[in-house]
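Example 3.2
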Amino acid sequence: METMNKLGRILMVEDDPKDVELTLTALEEYNLANEVVVTRDGEQALDYLFCRGQYKMRSGENPAVMLLDLKLPKLDGLEVLKQVKSNETLRMIPVVVLTSSKEERDMVASYKLGVNAYVVKPVNFHEFVNAIKELGVFWAVINEPPPGSIRK
């Protein structure tokens, strides 16, 4: 697959181990799973993005896309989104909210904060896997990242 050369890293912020496993399985089919960093709560996601704590030694390159759950321990997804979109270095990262929440207020708040897409996790296993595959291929392979998205 020629597109492998331009693959971007996916940051997945998800606390449910089953959803993590399903997502990685779906992405594996397109050889995208080896470029997925999984964080289990909002605080850990921000540590990764800001290169601090356990991630202080990582390369400063931004992920190609962040898949963000809203219902997270320590710091919820909306707060993570707010901090990402208000930061000059991080605001260009495409963020896809991937949540079980169909609540209109969550959707409205996400879009107001600058989310790029809002996807409600399908309950059906096959629908979930297909939705993840399409998301992964679009954001990590097809979509062109914003210029200068690699941090210095």
